[in-house]
Amino acid sequence: xxxxxSEIASQPALWRKAxxxxxxxxxxxxxxxxxxxxxxxxxxxxxxxxxxxWTEAYPAxxxxxxxxxxAGPGTLVRxxxxxxxxxxxxxxxTGATVVDEGSDPMAELVLIQRLAVELAESxxxxxxxxxxPTRSVVPP
Length: 140
What we know:
Strand order of the largest sheet: 1-2
Oligomer: single chain
Low-confidence stretches: none
Strand content: under 5%
Structural class: mainly alpha
Shape: globular
Number of helices: 4
Distance between the termini: 38 Å
Helix content: 40-55%
Largest sheet: 2 strands, parallel
Number of strands: 2
Radius of gyration: 18 Å
Mean pLDDT: 80
Order of helices and strands: HHEHEH
């Protein structure tokens, strides 16, 4: 089994564990608005940026303002969580295949990650050893 496949498969159990632990550790977590430090790289780095900038999040309607320009025949647009039906209709109008399962967003992420692994393997790529990786964060 690929390392990435094992990691993806472990996510639901880890989320359940985190939810179960939350009441016991809530008092040790930073209070709303309190400063915190997150240390990590790769995905954890991006997650840290995500929770550090909630005010920078983009609504689904922003899809119409840029990303839609690369949609078209042969592309897939997959909704994660609730998305305005008009945005999905606009994506379909480009000729893209639109998938809106209405599932739990976290479950959707696991499905998308598994699909990405299968797609990579079908193209003869090794998801555990991507081509040309570089550091995304380089110290000044």
